[in-house]
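Annotated sample (chain length 329).
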Amino acid sequence: MSVQAPSAVVMVRPHRFRPNEATLADNGFQTDAEGLDLARVAASAFDEVSRAADALDAAGVTVHLFDDERDDRPDSVFPNNWISTHSGGHVALYPMFTPNRRLERRGDIVEFLKAQYRVQDVIDYSGLEYDDVFLEGTGAMVLDHEYRIAYATRSNRADPLALERFCTNFGYEPMVFDASDARSIPIYHTNVMMAVATEFALVCLDAIASPVRRIEVADRLAGRGRRAVIALTTSQLDEFCGNTVELEARDGRVLALSRRAHDALTADQRALIERSARLLPLDVPTIELAGGSVRCMLAGVHLDPRPQRAPEHERSMAGREAAPVQMPG
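Output written by the structure step:
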């Protein structure tokens, strides 16, 4: 099992999805909702999440799927921004930049994780919102769990103070940089430009403003055991090629990504990835209208599962079967 690739994910299936008008100003990947048939958009998004969950389940990834019927949480399909989980039984809740995104934090999901997995503590950073300090989870940060590095591009969604506090609590080294797309729009979330897997990394180095920092990021991503650092072009950045996530499936690791991202990768890039992870493309074109893709849709579960208790009658039988045996003589 790879420390980088979780074998379970949390997903949220929205019933009232739409591109969030409140996030359009600083999300250069988002489509303006004006003129869209929002009822049709919501229905398509519901179906896309359902099919994506089915595809992950068929691959052998455990999917914890929660429904969201509220109409005031347009981005609830992206739970990785408000919650992350970590080995050792730790859960983090994050401060969100946009007020209507703060409604996405759900106590029922946290309680479910406590019941199903060994959770030692929940560290809640959401109070930082009152100080206008924000850190939108594993959207704002891309975590290298093996080498303990938190990569983050400066933005409204990633305050250095909150990042430093997270890194101190969880034992990561922060690596911060400035990054923009081909239109010189600052990258709003680090996970749209890079992804770290067990044996490779994907990154749009051209988006990083400082040439020195580009080299430093590439060197750190290479690590000691990573086979390849795959450089993405700014055109591939626009196609969400960086917004991918490695998962542990039934027959080995997979790289979950959108069909759009898959088709934008070159044959050589796909071959490098498939040395260690099977490509698992998911069709989510409606979800991508909101400026995020597959990585944003999946909150990885890096927790140890609790042993499942058998029904009462089975526990009673097990207790009798486990009684000491009296040996003759």
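Annotation: Residues 8-307 form a domain with the L-arginine/glycine Amidinotransferase; Chain A fold (CATH 3.75.10.10).
Annotation: The two ends are 48 Å apart (CA to CA).
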